[in-house]
Amino acid sequence: VTIHRGDYRPPEWQIPDIALDFELGIEATRVTAALSVVRAAAAPAPLLLRGDGLTPSAVRVDGAVWNDWRLEGSDLIVDLGDRQAATVEVDAVIDPSANTQLMGLYASNGMLCTQCEAEGFRRIAFHPDRPDVLSRYRVRMAGDKAAFPILLSNGNIIESGEGEGGTHWALWEDPWPKPSYLFALVAGDLVVNRDRFTTMSGRAVELGIWVRAGDLDRTHHAMTALKHSMKWDEEVYGREYDLDRFNIVAVSDFNMGAMENKGLNIFNTRYILADPDTATDADYDGVEGVVAHEYFHNWSGNRVTCRDWFQLSLKEGFTVYRDQSFSAAMGSAPVKRIEDVRVLRAAQFPEDAGPLAHPIRPDSYQEISNFYTATVYNKGAEVIRMMATLLGPERFRKGTDLYFARHDGEAATCEDFVRAMEEGGDIDLSQFRRWYEQAGTPKLHLALAQEGEDWFLDVTQTVPPTPGQDDKAPMMMPLRLAAFAMDGSGAALPDTLATLTDVVQRIPLGRFTARPALSVNRGFSAPVIVDYERAPGELAWLAAHDDDPFARYEALQQLMLDTLVAAVSGEAKGREAVIGAVAQTLTGAADDPAFVAEAVLLPSEAFIGDQMVTVDPDAIRRERLALQAAIGAALEREWRAILAQAAPPATDLTPAAKGRRRLRGVALAYLAASGKGDVPGLAFAIFSNADGMTERQAALATLAHGDSDERAHALDIFYQRYRDNPLVLDKWFQVQAWSQRADTVAAVAELARHADFTLANPNRVRALYGAFAGNQAAFHQADGAGYRLLADLVIALDPRNPQTAARMIPPLGRWKRFDEARQALMKAELERILAQPGLSRDVTEQASKSLMG
Ligand code: ARG
Ligand code: ZN
């Protein structure tokens, strides 16, 4: 069944209050849900309660047994006659231990926890389970005290006590009305890191991060991030926390990153636990960013929620933009922007260019879980960022203030957000709304024009056709640009913000005696592809002289990309310019090592492929390695100098220390590519002497590409040392799946049979298969073995965890981008998946859309 955005109808019943009663058990949990329903529709309509895998054992209305109900599929229809209000009570028993989907109430490592977004609540209790039905929840839970010493739910704890036979109970109440997807419950043997935060109006908030015994000393970074987030949201958005408690629980089996349940966030352990011995600097940043993201949802998501799931980007795009801005403020803003753009280009651009392309506000879906995408999240954040750029900080803040004030306590729409921006920012965003309607990455074709000494930039905008959207209209977008006279003479155009609205538009640049160097889409002001041919000399000049760090990065990346794309089609071009520009950039290494490390990194194989008409994975691998080797050899002295300096202590997590470690990792990779005989020994020494995971993992990853004795030795040491730490063991699987060795497909197949590999844990599945599917040359091995491996995984995982299985399909859906032989092999695997009996809705939707192309 396909759900359409235009079919939205307001709910016929509202549920102001809900009382839930849980008798907890790993194999059997009894749930009684008492819904106080009030009719919202003018005409009497039966009460539709969604269920998934539930069997009602009794239905009562206003306390009396009620027989006027029926099951329609898995939903419960209760006929309430012409009543205006009633209390509807339903009992059901569920088995959390059998819940391998990890949606609803499930068991993980002996504890019970929930994941309800988007439609998991219906696996716990019969309920309309739509985000525009908001209720106050009262949750009583009882269970064995030894098995579940800690009992948590949303809001405040009201009462607790002892029961019979070694049981105990707790009563929680959340005063803030919320949709069912924000409900949460946790019961288990947990320890807590406690802290306090005093809000701007003086409310004392008790903070708790709950983990399994033994993990407590890895929660400090998350706690610091939480307190910083609370402060930042007050200062930047004027948003204050609104309960006396804020709890976070870390769970090892989790489909996504984390979940913003009101007052009780539940996290994948990956985004909570960190210490220098087991977490890399990137892991630390991930913890900080996700803790902030979930905290920020308290306003952008919880206080103001979504009317329906088509509006998902309302909360996710905005919240990603908020967490990106927060991380930029905590560290280096240019480096954060470079990372965010890299993610957008790696994950969202291909999605926008493929069979699963959809606007940030989709028009239809079969399974909403398939729409937690890079488009809804990351392109959604870019759309918010463009509005912030168009409005400027003050007017943007006026707009968000208006949005929060106007919609507090409501289930809102993307349109509500844009309207608040329009009114608060005093701007007409009619055309800008197309960003919510049109899929596909716009392309800006640029050309310089000259009239005497007056120069102009001619911009032609096209938006490519996407499935179901053949004709596109031009988008409104902010384009930041500057122009420089490369010889130092003549006027320069300082940083300028142009607003594009038309298909063809001319922007005056000013007077120049010679062709100026153009710095365009500075800071990546619009999420577009810029098509503008520039000579290597101009790019190298910009890489050295542009005053916008992001634009410097872009210039060097473009220079590398042009060189690589030419090399793949057999044309030697620009290699000397690349080496010169990298050398020049490295002179800034002492001042800003993090930026330099990002800038000198070669574009990924996948991104090189994205520039080609037909992707040739083998030639891309070959030419990228060749350029890497050439840079490695030409600048050998520089790389060695970087590595000769002592690494900063792993406990030093300042941006400067992180930057130095990052640059050391890049230096080691370049040196290794150059093939110097002493590199495996050098890498092994770094691996062995490392006092933290950043250096250790970088050295291991470098070794993993080769076939030295040191490789096997290091992998073995790493495994023995960390076999009992699941998050670190994930890295062991991951570095092998990333390997550039020719036997990687076979190695991944072998690792899938390893005793420590399991389909039960999504992190482990992603560590092996997610990393493998991102290893372009290995995944696209010409005989199709990589495709078969991934399809086998999807088929094996689907019956157990359809949501995570469906997330593995998009790499197979990119078949149009490859040669005919690969196309046939990829399509055959999609067809094989679709031929499986009893396939989930999740996988069916992704595989069938992928096949259609
Ligand atoms: N709202 C969560 C977040 O972004 C993600 C939850 C997604 N859950 C799901 N089952 N798709 O922070
Ligand atoms: Zn989110």
UniProtKB/TrEMBL annotation:
<feature type="domain" description="Peptidase M1 alanyl aminopeptidase Ig-like fold">
    <location>
        <begin position="440"/>
        <end position="532"/>
    </location>
</feature>
<dbReference type="GO" id="GO:0008237">
    <property type="term" value="F:metallopeptidase activity"/>
</dbReference>
<dbReference type="InterPro" id="IPR045357">
    <property type="entry name" value="Aminopeptidase_N-like_N"/>
</dbReference>
<dbReference type="InterPro" id="IPR024601">
    <property type="entry name" value="Peptidase_M1_pepN_C"/>
</dbReference>
<keyword id="KW-0479">Metal-binding</keyword>
<feature type="domain" description="Peptidase M1 alanyl aminopeptidase C-terminal">
    <location>
        <begin position="538"/>
        <end position="851"/>
    </location>
</feature>
<keyword id="KW-0378">Hydrolase</keyword>
<protein>
    <recommendedName>
        <fullName>Aminopeptidase N</fullName>
        <ecNumber>3.4.11.2</ecNumber>
    </recommendedName>
</protein>
<dbReference type="InterPro" id="IPR012779">
    <property type="entry name" value="Peptidase_M1_pepN"/>
</dbReference>
<dbReference type="GO" id="GO:0008270">
    <property type="term" value="F:zinc ion binding"/>
</dbReference>
<dbReference type="GO" id="GO:0006508">
    <property type="term" value="P:proteolysis"/>
</dbReference>
<dbReference type="InterPro" id="IPR027268">
    <property type="entry name" value="Peptidase_M4/M1_CTD_sf"/>
</dbReference>
<keyword id="KW-0482">Metalloprotease</keyword>
<dbReference type="GO" id="GO:0016285">
    <property type="term" value="F:alanyl aminopeptidase activity"/>
</dbReference>
<dbReference type="InterPro" id="IPR014782">
    <property type="entry name" value="Peptidase_M1_dom"/>
</dbReference>
<keyword id="KW-0862">Zinc</keyword>
<dbReference type="InterPro" id="IPR035414">
    <property type="entry name" value="Peptidase_M1_pepN_Ig-like"/>
</dbReference>
<keyword id="KW-0031">Aminopeptidase</keyword>
<comment type="similarity">
    <text>Belongs to the peptidase M1 family.</text>
</comment>
<feature type="domain" description="Peptidase M1 membrane alanine aminopeptidase">
    <location>
        <begin position="222"/>
        <end position="434"/>
    </location>
</feature>
<feature type="domain" description="Aminopeptidase N-like N-terminal">
    <location>
        <begin position="97"/>
        <end position="182"/>
    </location>
</feature>
<dbReference type="Pfam" id="PF17432">
    <property type="entry name" value="DUF3458_C"/>
</dbReference>
<dbReference type="InterPro" id="IPR001930">
    <property type="entry name" value="Peptidase_M1"/>
</dbReference>
<dbReference type="InterPro" id="IPR042097">
    <property type="entry name" value="Aminopeptidase_N-like_N_sf"/>
</dbReference>
<dbReference type="InterPro" id="IPR037144">
    <property type="entry name" value="Peptidase_M1_pepN_C_sf"/>
</dbReference>
<dbReference type="Pfam" id="PF11940">
    <property type="entry name" value="DUF3458"/>
</dbReference>
<dbReference type="Pfam" id="PF17900">
    <property type="entry name" value="Peptidase_M1_N"/>
</dbReference>
<dbReference type="Pfam" id="PF01433">
    <property type="entry name" value="Peptidase_M1"/>
</dbReference>
<keyword id="KW-0645">Protease</keyword>
<dbReference type="InterPro" id="IPR038438">
    <property type="entry name" value="PepN_Ig-like_sf"/>
</dbReference>
